[in-house]
Specification:
With about 140 residues, this protein is mainly alpha-helical. The chain has helices at about 5-20, 25-40, 45-60, 65-80, 85-95, 115-125. Helix 3 (about 45-60) crosses helix 5. The radius of gyration is 15 Å and the shape is globular.
Length: about 140
């Protein structure tokens, strides 16, 4: 049997990613594909899929600016909610999305420069060997 607090955390995370995706057609498509694959929303895994899409959209921003604009809207929503959410949800966003963004020397790493300050600073803190999510 799952720990009730774990189940509550997953449900809260699922609700949060659904909220962030509202009105963003490409993100909602990713969410539908994710649900088809897993039969539920696994928030951390979904956020890692969104991070990959975000980096790909950043790489294609010159030829497909509309997709990157939508990706930026999703990230802006996440940045606005980041300081307001619970510590477990903040950790989910950090581990699911920020940690899944490209590492140094990987294609798309420049997408980190396009992140809102709060998210970019958190990722930079995560990249530091002395820090982890929320420690920066």
């Amino acid at each position: 049997m799952l720990d009730p607090s774990f189940e509550e955390s997953v449900n809260a995370g699922s609700d949060l990613v659904r909220e962030l995706a509202q009105g963003l057609p490409a993100v909602l498509d990713l969410l539908r594909e994710h649900e088809d694959d897993f039969d539920e929303v696994l928030p951390t895994i979904f956020l890692s899929e969104v991070a990959q899409w975000y980096a790909e959209a950043w790489l294609a921003r010159e030829t497909d600016p509309d997709t990157f604009e939508e990706a930026n809207r999703f990230v802006a929503r996440m940045a606005a909610r980041y300081p307001e959410v619970s510590p477990s949800e903040r950790n989910m966003l950090a581990v699911g999305f920020l940690e899944a963004l490209p590492n140094p020397a990987e294609p798309g790493r420049g997408c980190l420069d396009a992140l809102p300050d709060i998210l970019r600073e958190e990722r930079e803190a995560m990249d530091s060997p002395a820090n982890g999510p929320g420690d920066g």
